[in-house]
């Protein structure tokens, strides 16, 4: 029987108030119907343990880690549990993704039948816009008509990136690349790094027809604190300078453009000036 390790990462959110948990728990019976075993790990990065109610019926293992080292640490913890317990796949979830019956049914059916793919991903909508998967030609990001693109194939000339939440990743593949990159991308740009590994190894990604709604707050600079933006930009710069160095010249130009846009459009001007300071350091 195929087994899936589910990991849901929390931060300052009570499990029972997590949109992901509230919607997923209603569809866990699909695992049993499709004869797929699962283990459910809740990894809580909150400073203080918020605990969970009696959720024995959902086969939950609760871990509290006040160090808040990011999602990579949580994912690697669940990955090691999955390896020990013989799981084939790990399902990555954050706390504010709305899970649907269609998505659970489709992703579980495909994790049983797919042979070559190392990742199975949904389409993600945030603020009425598709934000995942994203396709990059150089540093230019655009959406490709997914209906005209084979769900198991992608243009070899472009880099496809998908957000972590909702993605099902093959555990053997993760072992091959040494797990999730905690050292360089503990939180931000971990998904970019992961799907770059998939791209470079010419592995296949299966894109589901199912669409999930996700709150991608990082896409709005006005909703970010300076500290949060600094973390994102630092990770972005590391990703480009180390893994997409051929795009460095274009990236530097884009940072200047971003600075001017932020200066005029973002309320917290410190965000714009931080962008400029990092650009001048490069």
Descriptive account of the structure:
The chain has 282 residues and is of the alpha/beta class. The chain has 2 domains: 3-216, Spore Coat Polysaccharide Biosynthesis Protein SpsA, Chain A (Alpha-Beta Complex); 220-281, no CATH class. The chain contains 9 helices and 12 strands. Helix 7 (226-243) packs parallel to helix 9 and helix 8 (248-265) packs antiparallel against helix 9. The longest helix has 18 residues, at 226-243.
Give the topology, please.
Layout: E1 3-10, H1 19-24, H2 29-33, E2 37-44, E3 60-64, H3 71-84, E4 89-93, E5 97-98, H4 101-113, E6 117-126, E7 129-132, E8 134-137, E9 140-142, E10 159-161, E11 168-170, H5 171-176, H6 190-200, E12 204-214, H7 226-243, H8 248-265, H9 269-281
Parallel strand pairs: 1-2, 1-4, 2-3, 6-12
Antiparallel strand pairs: 4-11, 5-12, 6-7, 6-11, 8-9, 8-10
Helix pairs in contact: 7-9, 8-9
Which segments are poorly predicted (pLDDT under 50) over 5 or more consecutive residues?
Answer: 147-154
Fraction in helix: 25-40%
Pattern of helices and strands: EHHEEHEEHEEEEEEHHEHHH
What is the fourth-level CATH superfamily of the largest domain?
Spore Coat Polysaccharide Biosynthesis Protein SpsA, Chain A
């Amino acid at each position: 029987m195929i087994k899936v390790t589910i990991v849901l990462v929390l931060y300052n959110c009570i499990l029972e108030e997590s949109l992901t948990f509230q919607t997923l728990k209603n569809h866990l019976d699909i695992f049993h119907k499709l004869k797929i075993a699962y283990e459910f790990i809740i990894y809580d990065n909150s400073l203080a343990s918020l605990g969970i109610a009696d959720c024995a019926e959902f086969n939950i293992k609760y871990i509290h880690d006040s160090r808040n080292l990011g999602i990579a640490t949580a994912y690697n913890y669940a990955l090691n549990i999955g390896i020990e317990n013989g799981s084939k796949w790990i399902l990555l979830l954050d706390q504010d993704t709305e899970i649907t019956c269609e998505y659970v049914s489709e992703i579980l059916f495909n994790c049983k039948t797919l042979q070559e793919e190392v990742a199975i991903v949904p389409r993600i909508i945030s603020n009425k816009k598709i934000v995942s998967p994203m396709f990059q030609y150089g540093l230019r990001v655009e959406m490709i008509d997914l209906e005209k693109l084979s769900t198991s194939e992608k243009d070899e000339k472009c880099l496809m990136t998908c957000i972590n939440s909702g993605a099902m990743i093959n555990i053997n593949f993760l072992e091959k690349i040494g797990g999730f990159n905690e050292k360089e991308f503990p939180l931000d740009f971990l998904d970019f790094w992961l799907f770059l590994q998939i791209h470079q190894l010419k592995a296949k990604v299966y894109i589901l027809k199912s669409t999930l709604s996700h709150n991608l707050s990082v896409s709005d600079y006005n909703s970010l604190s300076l500290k949060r933006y600094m973390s994102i930009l630092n990770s972005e710069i590391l990703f480009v300078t180390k893994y997409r160095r051929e795009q460095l010249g274009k990236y530097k130009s884009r940072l200047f453009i971003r600075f001017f846009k932020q200066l005029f459009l973002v309320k917290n001007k410190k965000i714009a000036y931080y962008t400029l300071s990092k650009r001048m350091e490069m």
